[in-house]
Amino acid sequence: MPQTEHYERARGRAVAKYKFFVHALVYAAVMLLLVVINLLTSPGDNWSIWPLIGWGLAVALHGARVFLLADSKTIIDALTENELRKSGADNRGEEK
User: Fold this and answer.
1) What is the pLDDT of residues 36-61, one digit of tens each?
2) What's the number of CA atoms in the CB half-sphere (13 Å) around residue 17?
3) Which residues 6+ apart lie within 8 Å of 48 measured at CB?
């Protein structure tokens, strides 16, 4: 795999992680604001739990996608390279 492809993949992963951290930070700030508003306006009715749960699930899924689930293209590329090495062919599909 050429060096530029490695860089592009690493850059893509870094951008995905950055976007997740921004998402998590915005979530935390908005949820803090909603909890404060909830406590100041209607302390007996805890309505802020619903956006906290809903958006929290979205943040959790976003985090799982970024950190836990492997990029299928990376897996397929690795398996392809492995098969090419086993068969004696180089990366262009030509026999050695």
Assistant:
1) 999 999 999 999 999 999 999 999 99
2) 8
3) 31, 34, 35, 37, 38
